[in-house]
Write a structure and sequence with these properties.
Elements lengths: L1 H10 L8 H4 L4 H13 L15 H9 L14 H16 L15 H13 L10 H15 L5 H8 L9 H20 L2 H12 L12 E8 L2 H11 L3 E5 L3 H10 L2 E4 L12 E3 L8 H4 L1 H10 L1 H16 L6 H4 L6 E2 L9 E2 H12 L13 H33 L7 H9 L4 H27 L4 H6 L16 H31 L2 H26 L6 E2 L19 E3 L5 E3 L5 E7 L2 H7 L7 E6 L1 E6 L5 H17 L5 E6 L4 E5 L8 H12 L7 E6 L7 H16 L4 E6 L3 H7 L5 E5 L1 E4 L5 E3 L13 H10 L3 H16 L1
Parallel strand pairs: 1-2, 1-3, 3-4, 5-6, 7-13, 12-16, 12-17, 14-15, 15-16
Antiparallel strand pairs: 8-9, 10-11, 10-13, 18-19
């Protein structure tokens, strides 16, 4: 019931699973217990493949105040867990967060992430774990699968450079595990309906780029003295043209050539226009003041990344997925839920402000029509006034035609005398009689224009004589009046555009550093979020590291808690006999899952200590099992979850995997193979896998050589080794010491004549090969003389 209530709280987005204990005001030990449970079991994302649901044991224990008892994978308490608790308590008191210590493994920003990657690559011990091309091939295959879940090139490149570490670098392994535990809990809390949105937003983020300086083509500086010209060219010459002008004609030409002109002094003659901006002191004028778009170039170039990063962080905060984000340091403290952080973080309110500003700019950094009402009004006037005037002129002309068509002219005697005497003409008399209709038509046309464009009184006044001062028929417009009106509107539009750009530039430039850091933080977020999706999609869980009894630790500088006992593949407990150990419970080979799907792959369990021979039927899955164990070993030493429900292993320094040889090797290749094995016999901790090594030479010699190798490996209790072979009995007969042999057997044929195989090896059992079953299959699937031939072969097996 309690588990159901907590799940309900999470599903209703009231709490984050990772912060459940903190949200419910539980004690610090309870927080640690919940984090430990999250670290131990990786639960799939709703959009990923199938897996077991989240365990309710941890939640019940936390809410009941009981500590979960389990063997830790690393003995020290995860540093991030300590940091969560300490920071949460500090935040409750002060409302502020502390900077993370360098060794607390925080989520780095972009540059820091690159530095961290370089550090991993530069570590001379980091690349020493994988010792053979086959082990490197397994490692490469793992990275290929993991990179399929990445949304950014940054994450793909980072994951491609991640490496497995030897046991002596357990600090690095634990650092990755801690980060993965935090992101695993976060991934679990992202609802299915949001996961696609998160993926799309991450896919829209690329590293921020600094735009190259570009010269403005629609603005220029005009100087009227040599001194001003020299100063302006030195300070602003790389951003826009600077002209030295000495006469009015040249000045008029330049004024008409540029949308806007910048002045720092005035000429002795009258300026030809008002499309200029004057700055009094050139020494105190910055580039951003005369070219506000220069400050916005960064935001325009990186608009998609900025908007995606801001939207992503706001979404995760809105959905309470991150819950007090700086407390768990997912984004390296780059964003905050508080409205006024004052410490370099960008708050949710600031995120919304930046998004609002960016939405108000077009692709060139100019105001987007519809965002600023005044700019939209002026732009609409300038772009559409000509067409509107033509339409209103046509309407007014139609009204005049209708008025004249039904009019009658009556002259009285006085008017006739005025016409004959020349003191009046017929035109003026006609005009006086229809002037009412004309004035009404013109007035309605001007009112319609004023209403359509929301003209201000002074703007409407400029169109007062749009149709002339005298009545004409047909009705016509005064071009000079319209041109003067458009020129004034264009000037107002430029000023408004500059004002909008200056305001946006001032607000955005102050947040450039925050946006840059947030982009980098989101890129790093994709690294660990993608790895978490990879882990949950393949139903992976964290392994438990153990040291063999008598060893002092794992190389992390602290001793591991070792019980001296381990659960075997069958679920029974047995004492580990002082040797390196590996146990995989219900594991699935990642490559097979990728091809066939999770539910189509039969889970396999296996545990090994010391040196073991693995026998088995043809196509029984011996190589796939060896690959599965290799995947678990490599992933465990990378600090990542493994493709098994449970996995326990002794961390080691080196991993050797010798794959199948194709045919009998020549003398040179045979010698090289033996030389490769000579390095395996050193005193270092190591794991050695070999798959059907007998093909290096003829069977009899192969059995004796492999027996000698196994005897040598068995002398070192720090070596774990599995040799796959069809010559297990011959090899055991050539050994002077007992060698454990496990087997994968086929029990018969199914109704479709396919082998029935139990792919989990049986301990201390020599598995028989499958020729007899193959012959049996041929007998059952053939007829006639062909069937008789196969029956004769079957008799040979039965007689023996």
């Amino acid at each position: 019931m309690l588990k159901k209530q907590v799940k309900t709280m999470i599903s209703e987005k009231k709490i984050s699973a990772f912060m459940t204990a903190a949200a419910l005001d539980l004690d610090p030990e309870s927080v640690s217990a919940l984090v430990s449970e999250s670290e131990n079991a990786f639960v799939p994302s709703p959009v990923s493949g199938p897996a077991a649901g989240p365990s309710g044991t941890a939640v019940r224990s936390v809410l009941s105040g009981k500590q979960i008892s389990r063997e830790p994978s690393c003995t020290e308490q995860p540093k991030n867990v300590k940091k969560v608790r300490e920071t949460f308590q500090k935040t409750e008191k002060t409302g502020k967060t502390e900077k993370t210590a360098e060794n607390d493994i925080p989520a780095k920003t972009g540059k820091a992430a690159k530095t961290e990657t370089s550090r991993l690559q530069a570590d001379p011990r980091a690349g020493d774990f994988l010792k053979t091309k086959e082990s490197e091939a397994v490692y490469t295959g793992i990275l290929k699968l993991a990179r399929e879940f990445c949304h950014t090139a940054h994450a793909r490149n980072y994951i491609e450079k991640m490496v497995p570490y030897p046991a002596s670098r357990m600090d690095r392994i634990c650092a990755v595990r801690e980060k993965m535990a935090v992101y695993g809990a976060l991934t679990e809390n992202i609802p299915a309906e949001l996961s696609e949105t998160v993926s799309k937003l991450l896919s829209g983020i690329t590293p921020a780029e600094d735009p190259e300086p570009s010269r403005s083509t629609d603005k220029a500086i005009i100087a009227f003295t040599e001194k001003t010209f020299t100063q302006a060219r030195e300070k602003f010459g790389s951003y826009l043209r600077v002209h030295l002008v000495s006469d009015a004609t040249e000045c008029r030409d330049l004024f008409s050539s540029y949308r806007s002109v910048i002045l720092f002094d005035f000429p002795e003659f009258e300026l030809p226009g008002d499309n200029y901006v004057y700055f009094k002191d050139i020494s105190k004028t910055s580039v951003s003041r005369i070219l506000p778009e220069s400050d916005m170039a960064y935001f325009i170039r990186n608009r998609k990344s900025i908007q995606s990063a801001l939207t992503l962080s706001a979404l995760l905060m809105d959905e309470k997925i991150l819950m007090s984000l700086p407390d768990i340091d997912i984004f390296g403290g780059e964003i905050s839920g508080s409205p006024d952080t004052g410490d370099g973080h960008i708050s949710k309110e600031e995120i919304e402000k930046v998004l609002e500003i960016l939405s108000g700019l077009d692709k060139d950094g100019k105001p987007e029509p519809g965002k600023d009402p005044e700019y939209s009004r002026l732009k609409n006037i300038y772009e559409n006034i000509d067409e509107a005037v033509l339409q209103e002129t046509a309407v007014a002309a139609g009204k005049m035609s209708d008025a004249l068509a039904g009019a009658q002219l009556t002259l009285d005697g006085a008017q006739m005398m005025q016409i004959f005497s020349g003191s009046a003409d017929l035109r003026s008399i006609i005009a006086s009689q229809v002037s009412g209709s004309y004035e009404t038509a013109v007035k309605e046309a001007l009112e319609s224009l004023s209403l359509k464009f929301s003209l201000k009184p002074d703007e409407a006044g400029m169109l007062r004589f749009l149709f002339g001062e005298e009545m004409t028929c047909p009705l016509r417009t005064e071009t000079k009046c319209l041109d003067a009106f458009k020129k004034e509107i264009a000037s107002d539009l430029r000023k408004k555009e500059d004002d909008c750009c200056k305001k946006a530039a001032a607000e955005l430039s102050a947040r450039r550093g925050q946006c840059d850091s947030l982009i980098n933080a989101c890129l790093d977020f994709d690294i660990w979020y993608s790895l978490s999706l990879f882990a949950s999609s393949y139903c992976m869980h964290f392994p438990a590291f153990e040291a063999a009894p008598g060893k002092s630790g794992t190389g992390s500088g602290k001793s591991d808690t070792v019980s001296g006992r381990s659960e075997t593949a069958s679920g029974k407990s047995e004492t580990i006999s002082g040797r390196s150990y590996l146990s995989v419970v219900n594991g699935r080979n990642l490559s097979l899952v990728r091809k066939a799907g999770f539910d189509k792959i039969e889970p396999v369990s296996y545990d090994v200590d010391g040196v073991v021979l693995l026998s088995g039927v043809n196509s029984g899955g011996k190589t796939s099992l060896l690959d599965l164990c290799s995947q678990c070993i490599i992933l465990a030493h990378m600090g990542l979850p493994v493709p098994a429900e449970e996995c326990r292993l002794t961390p080691t320094e080196e991993f050797y995997y010798f794959g199948k040889s194709k045919g009998t090797l020549d003398a040179g290749a045979f010698e090289t193979t033996l030389r490769n094995f000579s390095v395996v016999t050193g005193n270092k901790d190591k794991i050695v896998f070999a798959d059907e090594l007998e093909s290096i030479t003829e069977p009899g010699a192969s059995a004796r050589i492999i027996a000698g190798l196994l005897e040598t490996l068995a002398m070192n209790s720090n070596i774990l080794s599995v040799f796959v072979s069809h010559l297990s009995e011959a090899i055991a007969g050539s050994c002077d010491i007992p060698i454990r042999i496990d087997g994968i057997d086929a029990s018969g044929l199914d109704e479709n004549l396919n082998l029935i195989i139990n792919r989990t090896p049986v301990k201390n059992h020599v598995a028989k090969s499958t020729p007899e079953l193959i012959v049996e299959k041929l007998v059952l699937s053939s007829s006639g003389t062909e069937k008789e031939f196969y029956e004769n072969l079957r008799k040979k097996f039965r007689n023996n």
